[in-house]
Design a protein that fits this description.
Nucleoside Triphosphate Pyrophosphohydrolase, 4-stranded mixed β-sheet, elongated
Length: about 250
């Protein structure tokens, strides 16, 4: 019998599988029967719905690719989630993953796993001056404190990546830039066992003539201009390095 972990709802299997196919996810009830439907906005904690165990997936005859181990220990002690993509036709009877986020009948492990599967989108810009040097900022807060990064940050909810980096360049450095039309470098990566996926768009701009840099000290401790090669060597962000390497290769 599979090991079970006590939760605020009821006993929960120690290992479950997050199966996702084009926005659909597989949910089962406490006995492992499924697929079960999610109900957006449901407040009642019943029926108890969760991801299936590996044994339940096998019993349903569902095959899938090699799973990714997602570590939930920071929020859910004792539960292992295996993220995998089923090798089945599009499962119309499975619930949409958007529907289970606000369904109180769905166990927090499943809701947390779906939340982690959403991309965190950032937009950055390689600002180049007349000498060909690249603008870098020494970070004052958040990720990479004390290190040099390109201008940029998280997108606002309704913002296009090409607008986000323009906004960030002004907020962080006081520069009003326009992009040069070069296609952005698009990069995606999951950095740790929590399974958080980041998606980055990095554009380029040379529209700095006649402007003085005015850093926002709560975000940027100092601004520096570096030759592109040195900027690439100094960057600590995976996304910055990828974009600067592409810039150097042009």
């Amino acid at each position: 019998m599979p090991v079970r972990v006590h939760s605020r709802h009821m006993d929960h299997p120690a290992t479950v599988v997050h199966l996702e196919h084009d926005g659909k996810v597989l949910l089962v009830d406490a006995q492992g029967n499924g697929p079960m439907a999610a109900e957006r906005g449901r407040l009642a904690p019943a029926p108890f719905l969760r991801f299936p165990t590996p044994q339940e997936v096998e019993a349903m005859g569902i095959t899938h690719g090699a799973p990714r181990h997602v570590d939930h220990s920071d929020v859910t002690s004792g539960v292992t989630v295996l993220k995998a993509y089923p090798q089945v036709p599009w499962p119309a009877s499975w619930p949409w993953k958007d529907d289970l986020i606000s369904d109180n009948a769905v166990h927090p492990v499943a809701r947390e796993s779906v939340y982690r599967s959403l991309h965190r989108v950032v937009s950055k810009v390689i600002v180049v001056n007349e000498a060909g040097d690249v603008l870098m900022g020494r970070v004052a807060r958040g990720h990479f404190v004390g290190h040099l990064t390109l201008p940029g940050g998280y997108l606002d909810h309704d913002e296009h990546p090409s607008d986000g980096c323009v906004r960030e360049a002004f907020e962080e450095f006081g520069l009003r830039i326009s992009l040069d039309g070069t296609a952005p470098v698009v990069t995606q990566r999951i950095f740790d066992r929590r399974g958080l996926s980041f998606l980055s768009f990095t554009y380029t701009s040379d529209a700095t003539k006649g402007q003085d840099i005015r850093v926002e000290p709560s975000e940027i401790a100092e601004a520096v201009w570096l030759p592109a090669v040195e900027a690439c060597e100094s960057a600590v962000s995976y996304f910055d390095k990828a974009a600067l390497k592409a810039h150097l290769a042009r």
